[in-house]
Amino acid sequence: MGLDDRKLAVLRAIVEDYVSTQEPVGSKALVERHQLGVSPATVRNDMAVLEEEGYIRQPHTSAGRVPTDRGYRLFVDRLSRVKPLSPAERRAIERFLVGAVDLDDVVHRTVRLLAQLTRQVAVVQYPSLARSSVRHLELVPISTTRLMLVMIADTGRVEQRLVELPGPVPADDVTDLRRLVNEKLAGARLSDTPPLVQALVEEAPPELRPTMTTLATVLLETLVERHEERIALAGTANLTRGGLLDFQGSLRPILEALEEEVVLLKLIGETEPSTTRVLIGDENEFDNLRAASVVSTGYGPGATIVGGLGVLGPTRMDYPGNIATVRAVARYVGELLAQN
Amino acid sequence: MGLDDRKLAVLRAIVEDYVSTQEPVGSKALVERHQLGVSPATVRNDMAVLEEEGYIRQPHTSAGRVPTDRGYRLFVDRLSRVKPLSPAERRAIERFLVGAVDLDDVVHRTVRLLAQLTRQVAVVQYPSLARSSVRHLELVPISTTRLMLVMIADTGRVEQRLVELPGPVPADDVTDLRRLVNEKLAGARLSDTPPLVQALVEEAPPELRPTMTTLATVLLETLVERHEERIALAGTANLTRGGLLDFQGSLRPILEALEEEVVLLKLIGETEPSTTRVLIGDENEFDNLRAASVVSTGYGPGATIVGGLGVLGPTRMDYPGNIATVRAVARYVGELLAQN
DNA sequence: TCCTGGCACTCGACTGTAACGAGTGCCAGT
DNA sequence: ACTGGCACTCGTTACAGTCGAGTGCCAGGA
Fold first, then answer.
1. What is the pTM (predicted TM-score) of this model?
2. How far apart, in whole angstroms, are the C-alpha atoms of residue B255 and residue A52?
């Protein structure tokens, strides 16, 4: 159980070397590349202890050691300081995000930026509707029996949905509906809307009742229940770095997982306040992603969190660097959102 | 030069066998599996001719033959009939597309469906704005100096963009602007708008002039010039089938190409009327995709084409099957759009 | 008690050799 | 014009042997 300072230093050295060389690291190479002040034999003894405790393992007898998930965990928790970003990186972030005109634009730029800086797969969740407020609801007549419902959230997100009306509705009624809906819902948090929508139906003047009922259904369905979350993804080509050594030879499970929005949301969707989360190897709940790690954090204007973003890569990744980048990008995006 | 019927039959057999087995096919196996009515030796002679003409090649001496891009081309053009879809496939298409509520929804379902049916990477272009007409333009005040401009196209596409106004604009003016803009632009084809937008500015009453100018700039920028095209992608995990044999071992170039919208648009964006297009191997213009083939076609309500869709996979793909599926899906999507 | 040098051992990576067999090209015969 | 036969090619597989990185253990020394 006793892991003295030197053993920890050895573990740190193993993680760092393995991450950069991608090859099992042996005792001799270790003392050569790090100033440990002891001989290979001593390091070997330490390694034996570390292995017994489950922090490292040998791919096969007579090979060097490789960190286990548990080893990475210890490394992340206790052995690494977050790497400060280089000025070049800071500049890249600013340059990349300046000039975004749109929420869509912001999200796309962000996800590409993250992928480029970390050289991993990047994931950005659009501001969650559940954490947004309604800024405005617009009803646009498409035909006499069809409306386009457009909702604009305070985060800049815009959602639309076609509404099939039970019968023809004159233009004046649409104006009334628009007014009623906005009076009731504008400014409300999305998560608080269900009772308000209910009230809308009950308080509607009789002649608008059926239309309002339809509208209410769509509102609840689209804006609260259905695919209320959106995700942007970039950098899948980065999975092929380290030529098949990571991910034991098959990208298939990873690519499959990346196509599932639900999976991505669980991985990078914000949960706790604003801590950066690191999921190493099988710490995540998906079998397909047992060989992958995820670094994620929440972002939002000011102190509030409206969504999550992060990167996914092999367990053998540069945790300190990626943590720093993810945090920095999240902060910049937050500032950008705050300006709007 | 003389390719008699039997030689063509041999080529067809080679393509079919290679596509299904993924292994170079030899003369003996060929006569066993197809009723060619001649001996292996004869087939060998035919093969020698086919090789000389560049339709097939040997990976190495004493291996079977493999079709070249040119061979696939001949196969597609002259040796294959489009495979009729199985009833199961037809049912799958209908089941999948029924119940779509949204343009977004339609596109997402379509792209997943295509990926699933063909077991390739599927690409669907959103209805092109250039080929759409404006149904309605909405201006939503966000603050006194900011508007959200929302455009709804007749294809169901909705685009929005934040407009930073030169100065505060009262609500009444916004109403006027909305009316003016819609009077001028509603119903116009997007591609015809530039002169109309110009006229809008010139005809605007003096007090609205500066605001209208800003609005006009954004309109032109966002709706006509900038990322006016959108793309949905699915099935990248299918690239890993045939375990690295296709794509000579590295998915990297393919994944990189798939992240470039421009590339995808060039590949599946509609061009000629409504023919199905097949690009085999290096027939496409991208180095990264020399090992890939693309089957694509246009879709749209009725006879008009508003966008493209297709699949991308290894040159060794089931062309007749994929052509049939792509066409069928395009037709169904067209019908779906026509209903709205 | 802890560290070190030494030593025997393991085992994957690499090399060379040999046997195998799928597939070919060519030719003489029908 | 097709066919059977035959020699040849060459990748694949199996096996043996060598090499060397890396280990575990132990006895000796600070």
1. 0.92
2. 40
